[in-house]
Write a structure and sequence with these properties.
Length: 248
């Protein structure tokens, strides 16, 4: 791994109503010479209809997979069933995620059920997910052995990439923006500039985009700058590719 530097670009919260934003993200990557990304698919976004194998949505995802983009399971509904009253639950549930921390406090048996359902739905639709990433990167650590037993190759938390079948992990910081409110967008622009500097020494760097990022010119421009800066001296890969590289 010495001397090798990698960049993983990902689009989160992918559901039919976010397809246009994802297409803008893929065009942004294409314009910067990046041929592939990781697409984080939510099978039943906010508990809406599931992924019908015969739908145009499933066909669109299969086409992106055929182009070399990686499909990754991203929760089940991307929405928390309930948010506790304690301070920690309130901060993660209301401030950090706006009620979308689905796996943060889920009992293990329920988490397993949702992962199994999600994998099955994606596979029936002709997709080949090799990893699972919890919404907002929040999940109990005790879920890792379960993901390994399900045959998944990786998961990603806020700070680490976990190679499940090898029981190893690597620090992999992520640059992500928050566009839910004007004050968040302003802070994100400032944070991205600073983060690009302190993240530079790490061998693995992630840039994560969300649908709301593409509703505002400032966040689109910030993403573009971050991607152009990172791609200059890094090899663009998917998470799946890293599981078979020396980085694992």
């Amino acid at each position: 791994m010495i001397g090798k530097r990698f960049l993983v670009c990902s689009f989160h919260d992918l559901a039919p109503n976010h397809r246009a934003a994802c297409e803008r993200f893929l065009q942004l990557l294409h314009d910067n010479g990046i041929p592939r990304a990781v697409l984080l698919v939510v099978p039943r976004w906010h508990d809406r209809d599931g992924l019908d194998p015969g739908s145009t949505w499933a066909a669109w995802l299969r086409a992106r997979q055929a182009e070399g983009h990686e499909i990754c399971l991203h929760g089940w509904t991307h929405r928390a069933d309930r948010i506790g009253r304690d301070p920690t639950s309130w901060i993660f549930g209301r401030v950090y995620t706006a009620g979308e921390n689905e796996f943060h406090r889920l009992p293990l048996d329920e988490a397993e059920k949702r992962v199994r359902r999600g994998l099955a739905m994606l596979r029936v639709a002709g997709l080949n997910p090799r990893g699972f990433i919890a919404p907002a990167w929040l999940m109990p650590r005790k879920l890792l052995p379960l993901l390994k037993d399900l045959g998944l190759e990786y998961t990603v938390t806020l700070t680490h990439l976990h190679f499940l079948q090898k029981d190893t992990s690597r620090v992999a910081p992520v640059l992500a923006l928050s566009a839910r409110a004007p004050w968040r967008r302003g802070l994100s622009v400032l944070h991205a500039a600073a983060a690009s500097c302190w993240m530079r020494p790490f061998p693995i760097l992630r840039v994560a985009a969300h649908p709301a990022d593409f509703e505002h010119a400032a966040t689109i421009a910030t993403l573009g700058r971050a991607i152009r800066a990172a791609v200059r001296n890094r090899t663009v890969v998917t998470f799946e590719a890293l599981t078979t590289s020396s980085a694992a």
